[in-house]
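Service request form, structural biology core

Requester: graduate student, group of Dr. S.
Request type: structure prediction, single chain
Budget code: on file
Notes: please return the result as structure tokens.

Sequence provided:
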Amino acid sequence: MGVGQTAPPLALTLLGGGTADLSAYRGRPVWVTFMASWCPACQDELPLMEAYHAQLGDQLPIVLVDVREDAATAASFAKSLKLDLPIALDTGGRAQRSWGAYALPIHYWIDASGVVRAVGYGGLGPPQLKASIQTVLPGALLKP
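Core staff response, request fulfilled:
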């Protein structure tokens, strides 16, 4: 899946209960990231994502999709990084296959109409993350 394409459906159980359903975000942009606890780049980028979420709040919801790990592993990982972002569980990899999200982490910035405006693969730093955020929130002022 790439830039300019409509994001596929995504409806997964959230760690701690509830459902992450991409259709609930129609009308506003959203940032979806596929990740896993064993991924070094995920460990580096998730604290940055948490910091951007603190700055942007509801302007840009972020959904993390933990791929092929159980709830206990995802919860332990989130606790170790002090993450407060919602984590959807893709234990069987169905969403990963549907989205073609095989390299982890992979980020998708989706605009208010459901179209992917930027895709980023692991190892992104603040400049790349900011530029991608600005594809769906032009003019967003962000600190590293």
